[in-house]
Amino acid sequence: MTEPDQLSARGGLRSDQLSGLMLLALALYVAWANQAYPVGTLQEPGPGYLPLVLAVFLGALGLLTAVFGFRSAPLAAMRWPEAKRAVLILIACAAATFALERIGYRLTVIALLIFFLGLIERKGPVRVAAVALGFAFASFYVIGDLLHVPLPRSPWGF
Amino acid sequence: MAETLQNLLLGFSVALQPSVLVYAFVGCVIGTLVGMMPGLGPLAGISLLLPATFGLNPIIAIVLLAGVYYGAMYGGSTTSILMRIPGEAASVMTCVDGYAMTQNGRAGPALAIAAIGSFVAGTIAVLGLMLLAPTLAAWALRFGPPEYTALLLMGLFILAYMSGGSTVKTLAMAVLGLLLGMIGIDIMSGYTRFSFGIVELGDGVGIVPVAVGLFGVSEILLSAGALKMPEVQRPKLRDLVPSREELRLSVGPIGRGSVMGFLIGIIPGSAHIISSFVSYGVERRLSKHPDRFGKGAIEGVAGPESANNAAATGAFVPMMALGIPTSPVTAVMIAAIMVHGVLPGPMLIQEQPELFWGFVASMYVGNVVLLILNLPMVGVFVNLLRIPYAYLYPCILCFCIVGTYSVANNIVDVWILLSMGAVGYVLRKFGYDLAPVALGLVLAPMLELSLRQSLAMSAGNYAIFIERPIATTMLVLGALLALYSLKPLFVRDRRDWRSEVGLGKSE
Q1: How many helices (H) and strands (E) does chain B have?
Q2: Torsions phi, psi of B311, nearest 5?
Q3: pLDDT value at residue A18
Q4: Helical packing angle, B107-140 and B92-103, nearest 10°
Q5: How many independent structural domains does chain A possess?
Q6: B 157-186 → A contacts, CB under 8 A
Q7: Domain range spanning residue B372?
Q8: What is the per-residue pLDDT across B64-107, written as a single tens digit (0 to 9) for each?
Q9: What pLDDT, in 10s, does the model give residues B348-385?
């Protein structure tokens, strides 16, 4: 018996069951938040009408996914080998987003590339510096100067 | 016919202007590069280039973006054939036999047939666009709000029916997209919905952060650290010539792929992806030696590559004629030309013939440019594939962030991008198709407006949808497809046409 077969035989929550329940929870939240808007009537729908209808549909589809999800793969059999790296990438991007308007495009990109190449990918310092500086300045020149797309600058004009 | 030729001449007079030619060429080059890079498909490429088109005139903007789109279709095949890594999703099927041909020492002919097939399909599809779009636009002039409501609902049901995975999950994603489209000011009542006090959300959620997040960022989150680039072959020009037998075997698949791809392209959904799966399945079924598939059959390259290029062009038919996007890519392109005050739809071809026909003519030119780029110059582009992915993905992420920010100089868009990247990553792990989310987001305001306008027209009487023949036909067709697509939930072990052509159902 392979590992997934063993997990399957053991039972437990399935991937579609969990995702279906998550959709159902989202639908319930939307329906609750939609109370702030007038629903109107069937004949004269208000701003809350279509969101409510969609929330009901989403809830129903989430429920269907969960009910028929017993055929899907067991949740325990799902593998997330890249999850740690994905979370790191997202955190770094969030930090860059926070910094973008504060320290400008070039400094943000340099810092982001140093983090990715130096800390996550463990590349040599010379290569990291060359790629980070080269990419930040070259992309600023092409996007900002040649294509005239306004890119954020630091308070020091850099 | 004489009028069409006259219009085409007008189009060529626009498309052959030096500035338009230059941008068509630039679009094709960028598209080829974008298509070759894993994690940066045509959608992300177009979205990132969007801010750069704001200063251009609308014809040049649409020619540039369209060049990126079909250029990416060409470019995606190179990575698939040489490295077994699909540069973009539509090239997945090309990986199978394309890479097998590379292992058999036939990388050159595989690349050549992919480029020739793409060229032929692109040209046939432009002919289809040229003949079909004006007819459809003239017919669509009869459409009122009830017809648009019915058309949009039918489109969503066709999307669910045609999807490769679970119908229920696809519909759930379409509804999720429609709900995202509810965020912002309701134009009929002035209420700001689901904005959580964030002023920037008053304008709603933009297609660019959602599309780039769902497709670009989530792809990087899934593949970062996992991709180990194999050695890349660099074929010489003389190696590209296919044998007489390979040419003979490719003629049928190219013809069938072109026609099927164009027709599938008109239907909502990830048509260019679906068309390549359908074409591969059809070619395998038609082959006298289906056992050759997977081991380097040239038909497995010719069919899917022709189909995805034809579908990319087919998607422009409803976009231009009806103003309705049938894929996330055309949704972004509609947003791009609306920035210039141009509204795609039935009146566009009449009111701005130079834009429509200039666009059509530029696609003929673009296909020739791409044939040149992808045959004699393929060796130059292959050099890009030598850049290790560890260096490539951080740069792509930087482009995603800055591209999204630049659309409206709005940092909230970047937060939406990252949120959508995380959501897309989780949804893809759970086997959800993300294209319906992007489509739902774009269709939501149109659907809500047309529904409420229809009810206002009829004083709240829903019978308006069954009193008008066009609306009734579309609603009945949509309802039948919706019921039929739910069948696999209740009837097991029944194979339908989708599983026969490789679009397996997972319910």
Answers
A1: 24, 2
A2: -65, -35
A3: 94
A4: 160
A5: 2
A6: 166, 168-169, 171-172, 175-176, 178-179, 182, 186
A7: 2-491
A8: 888 888 888 788 788 778 877 666 667 777 888 888 888 888 88
A9: 888 888 888 888 888 888 888 888 887 777 777 777 77
**Co-location of A9 and A73 in the same domain:** yes
Query: Of A42, A64, A85, which is closest to B168 when you measure between CB atoms?
Result: A64
ipTM of the complex as predicted: 0.92
Please check whether residue A152 lies inside any domain of the structure. no
Q: Per the CB < 8 Å rule, is B406 touching A143?
A: yes
- Reference B435, options B348, B351, B325; nearest CA is B325
Q: Are A69 and A18 contained in the same domain?
A: yes
CA B153 to chain centre: 20
Is A123 a domain residue?
Answer: yes
B449 touches chain A (CB under 8 A): no
Q: Which of A101, A121, A152 sits opposite B390 (nearest CB)?
A: A121
**Residues of B with CB below 8 A from A33's CB?**
194
Question: What is residue A133's three-state secondary structure?
Answer: helix
Query: What span, in angstroms and rounded, lies between the C-alpha atoms of B181 and B179?
Result: 5
In this complex, the residue of A54, A123, A139 whose CB is nearest that of residue B179 is A54
pLDDT at A10 over 70: no
> Of the candidates A77, A93, A109, which is a domain's last residue?
A77
| Residue A133 shares a structural domain with residue A103 | yes
Domain range spanning residue A72?
Answer: 3-77
Chain B residues touching residue A55 (CB < 8 angstroms): 179
Whether B301 shows a pLDDT value over 80: the answer reads yes
Which band of pLDDT confidence, cut at 50, 70 and 90, is reported for residue B507? Answer: very low
Assess A113–B contact: CB distance below 8 Å, yes or no. Answer: yes
8 Å CB contact of B418 and A121: no
Q: Nearest CA of chain A to the CA of B114: how many Å?
A: 32
Q: 3-class secondary structure for B443-494?
A: HHHHHHHHHHHHHHHCCCCCCHHHHCHHHHHHHHHHHHHHHHHHHHHHCCCC
Q: Quote the number of domains for chain B.
A: 1
Q: Does residue A154 lie in a domain region? A: no
The answer, for A79 touching chain B at a CB cutoff of 8 Å, is no
* A96 interaction partners in chain B (CB closer than 8 Å): 401
Angstroms from B52 CA to nearest CA on chain A = 6
Residues 6+ away with beta carbon under 8 Å from A48 = A34, A35, A36, A37, A38, A39, A40, B193
- The model's pTM: 0.82
**pLDDT, position B415:** 95
Question: In this structure, is residue A151 part of a structural domain?
Answer: no
Please tell me whether residues A11 and A52 are part of one structural domain.
Answer: yes
Q: Is B459 on the interface with A (CB under 8 A)?
A: yes
